Amino acid sequence: MSSEFELIARYFSRQPADDSVQLGVGDDCTLLQPSPGHWLVVSVDTSVVDVHFPAAAPAHAIGHRALAVSLSDLAAMGATPRWCLMALTLPEAQDDWLADFARGFHELCDASGVSLVGGDIARGELSIGVTVHGELPPGTALRRNGARAGDVLAVTGTLGGGHGGLRAWQDGERNLDDPLLAAYLLPQPRIAAGQALRGVATAAIDVSDGLLADLRHVCEASGVGADLDGEALPLAPGLVERLGEEEAYRAALGGGDDYELLVSLPPSAVDEARARLEALGVPLTVIGSLAAEPGIRGVADSIPSGWLHFRGDTP
Ligand SMILES: [Mg+2]
Questions:
Q1: Ligand 1 centre and the CA of 27: distance in Å?
Q2: Which residues bind substrate (predicted)?
């Protein structure tokens, strides 16, 4: 196995995206120049083989996905991504695999304006820890605790694609042109949408654990309850065809890995939010409203009978 330093030099040393990187990969630490007057917004996620992605997934998708899930947390705060660090653990250094992995990672760095500014490579079971740093004007973050009774609940894009793609993979689908498989292995963090919702949304979270679980986080942080309109859930294209209606709704409600943004908005701000997102090509769908009474209500009425298996999930 090549040394850690050779691998970093070969696959991970690149020109930074901008001159905010005073010193990048190659010294004990990296030196960064944040934008004057901004807050740093920082998050870390670890992706573990056969927990978060299948071992046989294409290496470029593994690289993309490991960064995407971290960027999704920046998106959910409305932050502008700037820099990232990667801690890569892998069982052996295969050149083809590493080149593909690095390509997937770097392509998403480029698409998001992020510079990889440091990291670490160790030998062990495949896992990728990615720390992302973003920036925000002070006080503008989209937090989980700002939702109010009377707000509208809305979600970007479609739901259930992440779980549908996992099921497609388990069924033997290997073509990344399949929209469900792409939703699972090549999720697109809603970075521009998150920034566009600053000053409009009262709260936001990315749908990583599943709509109901993430909605519960918002409700608990904000001290509100929710009335969902199950029939309004925007199901991922092809989801009903692959899973059937009942399983499709379950995937949308509890499947996770969708990396869409779930937001609360004053009713008067819905048109403005929709216009801002439409300009980015991102649909926004109203799926319910928030109320003072705690709990999550309304889904059981409009979901096929299998929904009842989910009821243990709701408060
Ligand atoms: Mg999150």
A1: 31
A2: 52, 257, 307
Residue pLDDT, tens place only, 67-109? 999 999 999 999 999 999 999 999 998 999 999 999 999 999 9
Binding-site sequence positions for Mg(2+):
28, 43, 45, 73, 120, 206, 209
Residues 37 and 150 in one domain: no
Query: In the chain, how many domains are there?
Result: 2
Q: What is the CATH number of the domain that holds 284?
A: 3.90.650.10
pTM for the full predicted model: 0.93
Annotated binding site: 28, 43, 45, 52, 73, 119-120, 144, 206, 208-209, 257, 307
What the block records as the tokens of 67 is 């960064």
Tell me which residues have their CB within 5 A of the ion that is ligand 1.
73, 206, 208
**CB-CB neighbours of 290 under 10 Å:** 24
Under the banding of pLDDT at 50, 70 and 90, the label for residue 300 is low
Report the C-alpha gap between 313 and 307 in whole angstroms: 10
Q: Tell me which residue has tokens 């092809």.
A: 238
Domain that holds residue 26: 4-136
pLDDT at 301: 52
Instruction: Please give the annotated binding residues for ATP, written as ranges.
Output: 119-120, 144, 208
Tell me, in angstroms, the distance from the centre of ligand 1 to residue 68's CA.
Answer: 11
CATH number, domain of 8, equals: 3.30.1330.10
In angstroms, the CA 1 to CA 10 distance is 13
